[in-house]
Design goal:
The complex is a heterodimer of chains A (623) and B (91). By secondary structure, chain A is α/β, with parallel strands linked by helices. Chain A has three domains: 207 residues, Rossmann fold (3-Layer(aba) Sandwich); 153 residues, no CATH class; 166 residues, no CATH class. The longest helix of chain A has 35 residues. Chain B has one domain: SH3 type barrels. Chain B is built from three helices and six strands. Chain B is globular and about 30 Å long. Classes of the chains: A alpha/beta (623), B alpha+beta (91). Chains A and B meet through helix 3, helix 7, helix 8, helix 13 and strand 11 of A and helix 2, strand 3 and strand 5 of B. The structure holds guanosine-5'-triphosphate (GTP) and magnesium ion.
């Protein structure tokens, strides 16, 4: 007889390795990193036990209790208590503990026991515990807790073997009727008593050597030094943006010449006509102009992933807490905002760790101002075309410096907007508390970094192949039709729909120095920021006709004034040019209003910033 | 009351300097002036391991107003603001 699907749930304190365990069991590649609050959604996966039992396992956000203080913790609470609509309650709860730090998990486990769900305590990270000389009397612990206990090393091959066989053993004799659910929110006195009980059990079953992780202490002495720490943080960010320019250059040039060669090959082999134009101008000039930025995207993600895996993120949050608090931001806003450098979408989702509704909303509203990786193509294209690649002060790449400046303006304006929100809308505001566990440093693991980079690169290429490609087809079509009447002397593109649309919008954008080609590029740029680069590539390629084999950067350098270029950079710091971000804001805030507010305020800022930049630049003779 | 520790005067952890070590005596959320309600603040502190008898050490301080502080509580390190740490009475 086929046994029914066994439902497991992974519950535990933040950063105890639940997602690592989930990945090990199911072979998935969910995001793992060394700071609390990585997982903010529930994720289901499937596997088969050694004895052939079909299992569904759900990974949940980490939590210190079942009280559900913030949206991510509510997800865990509702799932464990079976409150989530349409969900089955788990047959077996795997309570995952960081073995080097059992106090908080054992207390959570004592609380979980009241739900009456069958449970296993998984002592994860047992490798680290063993290295530090921590020994656990597993049998005694199981007896004291009344729950089976098993050790595991989620990140090592075969490190979950014991857990798997125990799951088989237990699932064979799971009672049809699990215990009664007696859970209710613990009072302060109960909470205290539970922690005492947990501490007593640990004192009986675990022997802790008196030495904490000395490496973490040594590194923190520098990295968390009041002054030195901020210098290190600034240096890390600075090196990151320098690297984005300096290291990526050779690879980008390689890709660029590859696409050029491909374009020329198409030009030479195909007869002149629509197909040739479509492939050369639409596909290769358009999509190709975005794909060349892959090396930069990889470098920025590599930096972020390394910092996340090493355990630096929580430290950065510590260093930035007061500075961000001055702008009225919640201390836990730092990590979501930093993830927004990669992409605002996961950043906005990560705000679920913020318990206070208004703090969370403020963070969501400013997250899109953080310079996401989709802006990199736009910035790089314009910077390489207009800013000379000089060294300043002997060692700093000027282009990298400008890039750094653009990021800095993004951050500064996010802080300013947050300050204004607090100042005008939330006058009665009292600063929210900041309490964050600072995990021990861990050596970044090559495999997870490689997987992380690979996943992002794949996503980027996937977007290039879908969103960007389809937008390019649209732009190519608009820029190519209708065809000019016979005997026309003006460039063919002047008769096209794109020119008609762009010229209709031009008066609106002329004050900020944008020509009609930019106006056309901004519209598909709503689908994704980097599309604007591709759209410019296509429009100028079609306009340029046969000799348009030049790279888009060189074209811009001859067609735009410096003032226009700077104005475009200013525009992209602020403009709400991303439909998916707006959709996520609508979902996470549950309101169209806040989506509209975000769109509106960013658009106003973008226009104002461009207007200012353009006019100042023109006044200085850069028009 | 002959233990040396008891002769040390009690004070809130929020006033402690870097390098301070001590033992938690009790929690007193109403003195902290936190944005959280007393019950909520106490619950959260306990959930992070700040219970009576736990050893604490102030490891690091921030730059502005020497805030926040990184506190070693038994086997883990927690970052808190001094305002919330005022609720933790140590000696
Ligand atoms: N050495 C070692 N490291 C581990 C083990 N399990 C997890 N890690 C590391 O611990 C960190 C946290 O792992 P995650 O799986 O993200 O933890 P989580 O419980 O899902 O965290 P949240 O989603 O934030 O609640 C990562 O850096 C992992 O690489 C283990 O068994 N041994
Ligand atoms: Mg996780």
């Amino acid at each position: 007889m086929e046994l029914p699907l066994l439902h497991l749930a992974l519950v535990g304190t933040p950063n105890s390795g639940k997602t690592s365990l989930f990945n090990a069991l199911t072979g998935s590649r969910q995001k793992v990193a060394n700071y609390p609050g990585v997982t903010v959604e529930r994720k289901e996966g499937f596997f088969v036990t050694p004895l052939g039992r079909q299992v569904s396992v759900v990974d949940l956000p980490g939590t210190y209790s079942l009280r559900g203080r913030s949206p991510d913790e509510e997800i865990t609470r509702d799932f464990v208590l079976g409150k989530a609509t349409g969900e089955t309650v788990p047959d077996l709860v795997l309570c995952v503990a960081d073995s080097t730090n059992l106090r908080l998990t054992i207390r959570l486990l004592l609380e979980l026991k009241r739900t009456g769900r069958p449970m296993i305590l998984v002592l994860n990270m047992f490798d680290i515990a063993a290295r530090r000389g921590i020994t656990v009397d597993v049998e005694r612990l199981a007896k004291e807790l009344g729950v089976p206990v098993v050790t595991s090393i989620a990140v090592r091959k075969g490190g979950t073997a014991d857990l798997l066989s125990l799951t088989d053993e237990i699932s064979a004799k799971l009672a049809a009727e699990p215990g009664e659910n007696n859970w209710r929110a613990l009072s302060v006195a109960e909470l205290r008593a539970t922690q005492r009980e947990a501490d007593r059990i640990i004192a009986d079953c675990v022997s802790l050597p008196a030495r904490p992780d000395t490496w973490t202490a040594r590194i923190d002495a520098i990295v968390l030094h009041p002054v030195g720490g901020l210098i290190v943080l600034a240096a890390i960010l600075f090196v990151m943006f320098q690297a984005v320019f300096a290291w990526a250059q050779p690879l980008m040039e390689l890709l660029n010449s590859g696409f050029d060669a491909l374009g020329e090959f198409v030009h030479a082999t195909l007869p002149a006509g629509l197909l040739q134009s479509f492939l050369q101008n639409g596909v290769i000039s358009g999509v190709g102009s975005v794909i060349v930025f892959l090396p930069q995207i990889i470098i920025i993600f590599l930096f972020i992933l390394l910092l996340e895996d090493f355990g630096y993120m929580a430290r950065a949050a510590f260093l930035m807490d007061r500075i961000m608090g001055g702008a009225g931001l919640h201390g836990r806003a730092f990590i979501p905002l930093l993830s927004s450098f990669a992409c605002a979408i996961p950043g906005i989702m990560a705000t679920r760790v913020i318990d206070n509704k208004r703090d969370r909303l403020t963070t969501i509203l400013i997250a899109p101002l953080m310079t996401c990786s989709a802006r990199i193509p736009v910035y790089t294209l314009i910077i390489s075309a207009f800013i000379p690649a000089r060294e300043v002060w002997g060692f700093i790449n000027l282009q990298g410096l400008v890039m750094f400046g653009l990021y800095a303006v993004g951050i500064a304006s996010a802080l300013a907007v947050s300050f204004l929100i607090k100042f005008f809308m939330l006058r009665d505001y009292a600063p929210a508390p900041f309490m964050l566990e600072l995990p021990d440093y861990k050596m970044p693991r090559l495999k997870s970094i490689a997987i992380g980079v690979y996943t992002r690169a794949k996503m980027f290429l996937h977007r290039a192949g879908t969103t960007i490609f389809s937008m390019m087809v649209l732009i190519w079509f608009l820029a190519s039709f209708p065809q000019p009447p016979a005997g026309a002397t003006e460039p063919a593109i002047d008769f096209s729909l794109a020119a008609i649309i762009g010229k209709a919008l031009e008066p609106l954008l002329a004050p900020v120095g944008f020509n009609w080609q930019i106006a056309v590029a901004l519209i598909p740029g709503m689908a994704a920021r980097e599309v604007a680069v591709a759209a410019l590539g296509t429009v100028y390629a079609i306009e340029g006709g046969k000799e348009a084999a030049e790279q888009i950067g060189q074209v811009l350098a001859t067609k735009w004034s410096l003032a226009t270029a700077l104005s475009m950079l200013a525009w992209y710091i602020f403009a709400p040019q991303c439909a998916s971000t707006l959709a996520v804001i609508r979902r996470e805030t549950g309101s169209w209003t806040w989506m509209a507010v975000t769109f509106g305020y960013m658009l106003v800022l973008a226009y104002a910033a461009s207007l200012l930049t353009y006019n100042v630049a023109v006044a200085f003779g850069a028009g | 009351m002959t233990d040396i520790h008891d002769t040390r005067s009690q004070m809130p952890l929020g006033l402690a300097q870097r390098g301070y070590t001590g033992v938690i005596q009790h929690l007193s959320a109403k003195d902290a002036g936190s944005a959280l309600s007393d019950v909520e603040l106490e619950s959260r502190l306990i959930e992070l391991g700040f219970v009576e008898g736990a050893r604490v050490e102030v490891l690091h301080e921030g730059l502005v107003g020497r805030d926040p502080i990184a506190v070693r509580v038994d086997s883990i390190t927690i970052a808190v603001r001094r305002r919330e740490a005022m609720a933790i009475i140590v000696a």
